[in-house]
Structures
1.
Amino acid sequence: MLNIKDIRSNPENFIQNLKKRNIDDPEKIINNILELDKTYRNFLEQKEKLLNERNTISKELGKNKDDQKKFNELSNKVSIIKEEIFKLDKITEEKMLSINEILMSLPNLPHEDVPVGADDKQNIEIRKEGECKVSDKIMSHDEIGEKIKKIDFETAVKISGSRFVILKENLAKLERALINFMLDVHTEENGYTEYSVPVIVNEKSMYGTGQLPKFKEDQFQLNNNQWLIPTSEVSLTNMVSESIIEYEKLPLRFVSATQCFRAEAGAAGKDTKGMIRQHQFTKVEMVSIIQPEFRFKELERMVECAEKILKKLKLPYRVMLLSSGDMGFSAEKTYDLEVWLPSQNKYREISSCSSCGTFQANRMRARYKTLDKKNNLVATLNGSGLAVGRTIVAILENYQNTDGSISVPECLKKYMGNVETL
């Protein structure tokens, strides 16, 4: 959440940066916030004066216990002041709720390095790795799955509906192998601590990381006001909500493999065929909690950790710096890793690594103790390391042989019982 104190001190900065995020009429929004804030603070000042007055009279009451007339007069004044304070409490609470409601709907501001643009057309390619296969003889992953009878969309539709899949035999084993491989690399080589976290969270947690209120339609809500996570970023990041972390304990680096759930309400008609965009999918997620001044160095590190997985799998990919209009709601700077899919003859996202600055921490009240013993907001970062389903898609297409078999990447063989092909 954007910080009201920062808006108050430099409103023009917020207006200009919200324009970069393609927010309609940001000047009107910021001016509205400032007007509400001014009114809130005026009422708060009135309340403080009344509280001071009440405290002064309360002291006088103690001195006039023997003067019944004076005592009653002062008591009546205290009662009137209490009533006024009660009214001001309600007004200030309403004003603060109005301010927070607007702030909760606004995205994070883009960092100065982020290219300004409306969508992915303004994204910038940072680097490419690996050799891309180009052939009209390469089958798509769903065609391969149908041929080897190990990807079953039909039965998944029967029991769940569209955008679900069933993997069988060696492909189910490949999914499990990828999860174990990714977690091993991140914990043994990249310095992350593994967690097994809930996939059902409360509404407060969804607000904390920015999934609510703006993206309610993209989430799966349960009938008890709890939610299925769209990514374990929600569970992992909220582990530090409402807490103060000692300086020397930072950075914290978490990793988890979970099932993830997305309604894909905004993706009607997109990737309806195959495994690219599913309602339920597996993802290995990295989260870092760090002092704000080190967040961009940590972002580069996180990208390298995700890249290491792709390099070990020997999958061709590229790194993209996202434009201001293509970044996620909570992000201030994002790199996407896009893997090459020969059947589509293009790169597709397989990981997204973002710095959120103090945006999520402000919503979660996640702080750390500075060296001079002040309580400041932490910075949060998150990244896929990787999306497992899309990694399966990339392996099926990039490791496809002329006889139709699929070679197992060398780094996965020990997780697959040393089989050579799928």
Note: The two ends are 47 Å apart (CA to CA).
2.
Amino acid sequence: MKKLFVARQPNLFEKFAFPHFKINEDYKIIDAVLEDETIVMELAKDFPDVATGRNRTPIEQTLRFIVLKTQKQLDYRSMERTLQNNLEDRWFCKINEETPCFKTIQNQISTVSDKTMHAINDRIIKEARIRKFTKGKKMRIDSTITESNIHYPTDSSLLVDAMRLVVRTVKRSKQAIPSGFRTFKRKIRYAQNIIRTIGRRNKEAREKAIRELMEMGKHIARTSKHIHQRTITKQRILLERIIAQTETVLSGIRVKERIVSIFETSARPFRKGKAGKKVEFGQEAQIVEDEHFITSWAIHNKPSDTAYFATAFKKHKHVHGKLPREVAADRGYWSPENQQAAKDAGVIHISIAKKGKKAHPEEETTNLRKWKSLQRWRAGGEAKISLLKRKYGLTRSYYHGQTGMALCVGAGVIACNLATFARMAMVTGP
């Protein structure tokens, strides 16, 4: 059964065994924010209300699990051990008796939707506005790539992964294995060895080995058609797509919608030109900020910075109830339409560099000093993205699928905003 709230009960053993134990001030501030019943009721929408079955872990603890896991960058098993041993974390997550097992924590966290994460973040920003930590007069926007947890994709590795997945699922299925079905275990290993050794120096030998893998994949796909099971059918279609993709690449034609992983099919390749990492495989996250907090975010498979600019305005107005007076972004968001739309909305100062040939700022604005000042402030968005990547898990998503990517980014943003809230509260006082 669904349980919303849990009362924090004093533990006499902990009280007498650790008399000098104290809770950090930032934990107390974040705890006060998460005590909001509106946040808990918003979170409860993702959990079904059933009249039978054993009691679930209180929903109030779920968001605390997310914040603690994200801030400390823990996996689920480490999370369980931390809640067993760390008194401060037990206090924060309101653990009174037994610690929930890692599987329970995983099930609770994976149930939370992206829509709920946005609603919780809106409530946190509202509380920040009430305490005058932010006014919503400024807005800056930038994008970053959150990588999926996949290996570097090559045509041969994708073929091998897809074949092994279909073979494994067919073997585990309770249906009869069709006649003529083969696993090609030794031949696949031999072709891989050719690609890794001779294929590095000899293009013809590499392509020949890849074509042999394609023939094996066609045979597995052809013989598995007789098994009518949804999972096998889905995996077989994916194998056929990878075979077709490999044939297109070998013929010298560039593939636009390229599959880069059979497990994370939503991941896309991005060329950002970074030193030591020419291509990143994942999804793009758009990050919108006000003076201090991240007001909203969005995840895209086919990103367009220019197209998202108008959406960022709507998000800012939804959170703050008004449009910003000053806007800053990099040249990826510039277009004549965006420039004019911002002016029509009443934005006083717009600082977005033009695309193409470098133009002098005097050609874009009458207030050159303010334009440069906003560009310096915009550069602070890079620091916030770096913080999200270093401390809040946006470098790589270890959650699965599109919903997992949304959960990874949303959890990182909320944890970062709560830390900012606590820091500002300690500076300004009650």
Note: The longest helix spans residues 401-428.
3.
Amino acid sequence: MKRSRPRGTADLILDTAERLVQTRGFNAFSYADVSEELGIRKASLHHHFATKAELGAALIDRYHRSFCDALRAIERGSDDARERLTRYIELYGSVLRRKRMCLCGMLAADVDTLPAAMRASVATFFAENETWLAGMLDAGRRSGALRFEGTSASVARFFVSSLEGAMLVARGGGGGKVFDAVAHHLLAEVGKGAGQARRPARGRQRAARGRTA
């Protein structure tokens, strides 16, 4: 049986800091909070992450890689565009059910106060997220599984913005039902009339065969 790698101090620091960012925000926690929760000295934190900016950069990098792994798992799990969209939305829903927010969404709220490297990393996260989603939307439209107005890039940005906003409203008091309602609306918007474009053509073919017979 393959044994999982023991989690070292750096991993535990990242786990704790990630949760604090997702529940409080980047500017609302300190190394003292992390050291108190883990029962280690602040000097140990500085040994692994010399500055809070360095810790923040490591958090984004790990979160980004984990998100990309999840996107690849969605691709492997199904060829159906609507199923992929549903699973994509669930990435956000699962975070919300843990009473957390998207890490990069929380960082975006503090973006004006973040170091330049962190701002760039947050922007890259959202850009790559939208690029993946746009590609998936394009493929769904080509197959006839999805149907929507506008470019896939604009719809992808609308999806990401809506999901991030729904998480905020849900956390602010609307609850999970708010997020679920937004998710349902998004799926309905890209599914309007999907698969119908080819049906009239088949009807015309049948009619043509009837006239020939």
Note: The domain at 61-192 is CATH 1.10.357.10 (Tetracycline Repressor; domain 2).
4.
Amino acid sequence: MLDLKWIRDFPEDFDRGLARRGLPARSAEILDIDRLWREAETEAQELQAERNRLSKDIGIAKAKGEDAAPLLAALSTDKERQAEREREAGELRRRIDEILSAIPNMPADDVPEGADEHGNLMVRRHKEPPVLGFAPREHFDLGEGLRQMDFARATKISGARFVVLTRHLARLERALAQFMLNLHTGEFGYTEVSPPLLVRDDAAYGTGQLPKFAEDLFRTTTGHWLIPTAEVPLTNLVSDEILEEGNLPLRFTALTHCFRSEAGAAGRDTRGMIRQHQFQKVELVSIAHPDRSAEEHERMTACAEEVLKRLGLAYRVMLLCTGDMGFSARKTYDIEVWLPGQNMYREISSCSNCGEFQARRMKTRFRPKEGKGTRFVHTLNGSGLAVGRTLVAVLENYQQADGSIAVPEALQPYMGGMTVIGADV
């Protein structure tokens, strides 16, 4: 959530940030409500002070044996007026919070302007796409050819956008997840967490999924939300807390299943594993000092890139434009891996710096070593990586002419020394 005081002090900057996001100006509307709210708050406080004075005067009058009826009548009138103004102030403040909760984060100054993915900028590229020497097949053709990827049975059980993996492909998926976790915990200093997959409203609100994106989530009959990413529980580990500056940054990683309704994805990637209702992902989350969050963002992105480098996959890093960034992000890098079967790059990781946007919603601060008071932390999150999409990338990039799959060297220890995945007989 954005800082209301900042909007008061810099309304032009606020409207400029909204314009960069492709949204209309809102400062005049918000500040009008803010003015009415502050007037109601001020009058309620003044009426309380007046009631305190009247109470003292009533006590004095009674002690002197004087008629206190006029004072009691004034006290009653002030009490009713105060309650009315407090109700008005509460309603106005709720209206402000409702508006602010639906407004996205302001983009960082170095984020390029653009309406959609066509405005993104390539920052760097690693390796050239491989030349396979034969017509490459897409991952679903490869998986079904191996008889270890079954969409028909998954549909029978659960409907569209699900898959059943068996034998070596199931093990390959597990190998990828273990490889990623071992890398992030063993070499990059992330603390592994096994978090809940069901969260309450406050947690989904804290990271920005609610209220605006409720239709993208699955909700249980108990009112819990299935997590769309481990960003939600990992970031909320520090909600409503005041941290010590010396403990920053905190770095968490988790392998979880993720659940998304894909409400806006009708007709997109209807075949295969690219866009599913349920998938596994290794998530990276950092709780950082605001003065060092930009540096932490580069570090996190490099950690995600290293997974692809060790798997020998070609990829590129894109800086997202203002029109393609997520709701809570102020700056985002997407990592796109090359898929020979599709003959194109596809997103496999998104690493975002959210600044203090989520921290304000979660009420998460830190206490500086020097000086008084507290400051909001900065939060960052990224995929390190999406396991299903990495499996897709391995299948398509390591496919062989006969439909078998060479196992990347980095994964062979997790596959019991297996070097090639052939048809399931």
Note: Residues 117-421 form a domain with the BirA Bifunctional Protein; domain 2 fold (CATH 3.30.930.10).
